[in-house]
Design brief:
This protein is α+β, with helices and mostly antiparallel strands. The chain has 3 domains: 28-229, Histidine kinase-like ATPase, C-terminal domain (Heat Shock Protein 90), CATH 3.30.565; 235-402, Ribosomal Protein S5, domain 2; 407-543 and 605-640, Rossmann fold. Helices cover 40% and strands 22% of the residues. The protein contains 21 helices and 28 strands. Strands 3, 4, 7, 8, 9, 10, 11, 12 and 13 form a 9-stranded mixed sheet that branches. A 5-stranded mixed sheet has the order 14-15-18-16-17, with helices on both faces. The longest helix has 34 residues, at 378-411. The relative contact order is 0.07. The structure holds 3-[3-(1H-pyrrolo[2,3-b]pyridin-5-yl)phenyl]propanoic acid. 3-[3-(1H-pyrrolo[2,3-b]pyridin-5-yl)phenyl]propanoic acid is lined by residues 56-57, 60, 83, 85-89, 115-116, 177.
Length: 646
């Protein structure tokens, strides 16, 4: 047994081994400032602990030494990660001959990297490889078992401090490493691992490491479940998955994996007949949300290769302008992964790859693979170029439509006739309600505070088109009215400084039509005025579903469950009059003001970019040709009003 003493940070120190003290000092900073090492101590940080341990096994898989990783959430709220790699070395470390390498790895900050040779280092969610020692430091209890040289070695730790030296506890067949930890809840705010969150990230890791089986098991009482990820196709499987609700233009994704110098480049892409781009990029397993040199190289290759090919086949005529980057992005689904020894990240969130050499490496790999694909499958090549030409034409038409909107603006700066504007002129104090239907629009106009609230009624179906694209959206009178009312213009020349309202509120009925209109509007804002969303200026108004009148008192509730609860609480003697609103139009101006517009009493939901992305996905599903998902969606949502927030 180790004799424990306390230092000033409350870390219990084991008293064995003089050299130990130095190393223990090494883990103190992690417990002092956990946020610096794992991002936060909330649920995200908790999951980060798991990813950190899994990353080490992924490193071993990347080295080609491991093809199976099993993660188990235990009954005791522990997590164990087991792999069939070579096992962390247990031999004395050359630089510290009295200590097992395993112990140094577990108790020294950043030790992982030093022992990993010149392999690629995997990283998690923006915090790159702080090492399993950080997890150890933040664990009430941790245990590592290593199968190596036909022996099972083991060491245990408390708060990162070894309980005893590494020991052999039995024989072993095969090799591998198993790390089990229970987070220290005096530092971590929660120990409640979320199966679905872990599964999502592990799935991503499986896509990025083809041929590796990743299994997640939940053994906690009452929530027993498991899932296994294995993707032989790597990023090709990923792209197929992303396109699963869309109509693809190519039978199979183009897929290439190639090593250039020390960089491993993997790319998969497949066009669909939609109008947006879905592009994921990773560097050493980290999702590079802000792109970087690998994405730049990819885009350059795509534009150049498609132009070259279009010219060669004659689909692109001499008089035609080159396809632009935007033209080749429409309907593109792609995934890029690079693995390199010294990845450099930049930006606030470290989400952008900075290594300049990667640009040409990716560009060359993609150019070669794509040119070959186009040569070998000319029928697909033709379809892709045709699609890009369509995008170019649409962009041209959109430009003309936009000019029209602008010219109209210049000649006649009057606001839409249906707009009931507010009297306040300072945009940041103004709100614009976009209201479904003329009748609700009328109530809103009467009920509002005209000083700062403006109303624009939206009549009927906003867009009665099967396939909404920018040019068609812009021909919709309703969308033109919205753009004119907002004052920003649209497209490349959009000017947010001209925005006439600080806040935009979508007010639609709680039925299928309402949800359709809301999905369309969210998609429009997501695709054409994304900044309104990222600035947090877009909201969804929440009109009540029921009015419950008891005597002279009126109460409003927002769901069936709330209504049932309210009535149950009233008890037997009361006789409430319950009124279900079929639409906003049934509310009189006072009710609309009180429940949905008065800042003091209303509930409004801020639209996040995730909401908008979901709406965009729903939109593409609703507009797509696949009938079943659309039918299922409409059936599911016709019943359940709560889920209409798509
Ligand atoms: C460096 C060298 C060797 C194995 C590992 C790292 C290793 C680390 C981890 C962490 C989790 N699972 C792991 N599996 C392996 C072994 C080198 C050799 O045997 O020659």
């Amino acid at each position: 047994m180790a004799i424990a003493e306390r230092n000033q940070t409350g870390v219990k120190k084991s008293a064995y081994g003089a050299s130990q003290i130095e190393i223990l000092e090494g883990l103190e900073p992690v417990r002092k400032r956990p946020g610096m090492y794992i991002g936060s101590t909330d649920i995200r940080g908790l999951h980060h602990l798991v990813y950190e341990v899994v990353d080490n096994s992924i490193d071993e898989a990347m080295a080609g030494e491991c093809d199976r990783i099993v993660i188990v959430i235990g009954k005791d709220n522990s997590v164990s990660v087991e792999d069939n790699g070579r096992g962390i070395p247990v031999e004395p470390h050359p630089k510290s001959p009295k200590q097992s390498t395993l112990e140094i790895v577990m108790t020294t900050l950043h030790a992982g990297g030093k022992f990993g040779g010149d392999g690629y280092k995997q990283g998690s969610s923006g915090l790159h490889g702080v090492g399993v020692s950080a997890v150890n430091a933040l664990s009430a209890h941790c245990r590592v078992e290593v199968k190596r040289g036909n022996k099972l070695h083991m060491q245990q730790y408390k708060l990162g401090v070894p309980v005893a030296p590494v020991r052999v506890i039995g024989p072993a067949i095969g090799t591998g490493t198993k790390t089990t930890f229970i987070p220290d809840l005096t530092i971590m705010e929660t120990g409640d691992f979320q199966f679905d969150t872990l599964a999502q990230r592990l799935r991503e890791m499986a896509y990025l490491n083809r041929g590796v089986t990743i299994k997640l098991v939940d053994e906690r009482e009452g929530q027993e479940q498991e899932t296994t990820f294995y993707f032989d196709g790597g990023l090709k499987s990923f792209v197929r998955h992303l396109n699963k609700n869309r109509n693809v233009v190519m039978a199979k994704p183009v897929h290439v994996e190639k090593k250039v110098d020390k960089t491993l480049v993997e790319v998969a892409l497949q066009y669909n007949d939609g109008y947006s781009e879905t592009l994921f990029s990773f560097a050493n397993g980290i999702n590079t949300v802000d792109g970087g040199s690998h994405v730049t190289g990819f885009r350059a290759a795509l534009t150049r290769t498609l132009n070259d090919y279009g010219r060669k086949t004659g689909q692109l005529k001499e008089a035609d302008a080159n396809l632009t980057g935007d033209d080749v992005r429409e309907g593109l689904t792609g995934a890029i992964s690079v693995k390199l020894p010294e990845a450099q990240f930049e930006g606030q969130t470290k989400g952008k790859l900075n290594n300049a050499e990667v640009r040409t490496q990716v560009e060359n790999v993609v150019t070669e693979a794509l040119a070959k694909y186009l040569e070998e499958t000319p029928s697909e090549g033709r379809k892709i170029i045709e699609k890009c030409l369509n995008s170019a034409r649409a962009r041209d038409a959109a430009r003309k439509a936009r000019d029209l909107v602008r010219r109209k603006d210049a000649l006649d700066s009057t606001l839409p006739g249906k707009l009931a504007d507010c009297s306040e002129r300072r945009a940041d104090r103004c709100e614009l309600y976009l209201v479904e239907g003329d009748s609700a629009g009328g109530s809103a106009k009467q009920g509002r505070d005209r000083h700062f609230q403006a109303i624009l009624p939206l009549r009927g179906k906003i867009l009665n088109v099967e396939r909404a694209r920018l040019d068609r959206m812009l021909t919709s009178e309703t969308i033109k009215d919205i753009i004119t009312a907002l004052g920003t213009g649209i497209g490349e020349t959009i000017d947010y400084s001209k925005l006439r309202y600080g806040r935009l509120l979508l007010m639609t009925d709680a039925d299928v039509d309402g949800s359709h209109i809301r999905t369309l509007l969210l998609t429009f804002f997501f695709r054409h005025m994304e900044k309104l969303i990222t600035n947090g200026q877009l909201y969804i108004a929440q009109p009540p579903l029921y009015r419950i009148q008891v005597g002279k008192q009126r109460h409003y509730v927002f769901s069936d469950a709330e209504k049932d609860e309210f009535i149950a609480r009233l008890g037997e003697s009361k006789n409430p009059a319950v009124n279900r609103y079929k639409g906003l139009g049934e509310m009189d101006p006072e009710e609309l003001w009180e429940t949905t517009m008065n800042p003091a009493t209303r509930t409004i939901l801020q639209v996040t970019i995730e909401d908008a992305i979901k709406a965009d996905e729903t939109f593409s599903m609703l507009m797509g040709d696949e009938v079943m998902p659309r039918k299922r969606f409409i059936e599911a949502h016709a019943k359940n009003v709560k889920n209409l927030d798509v």
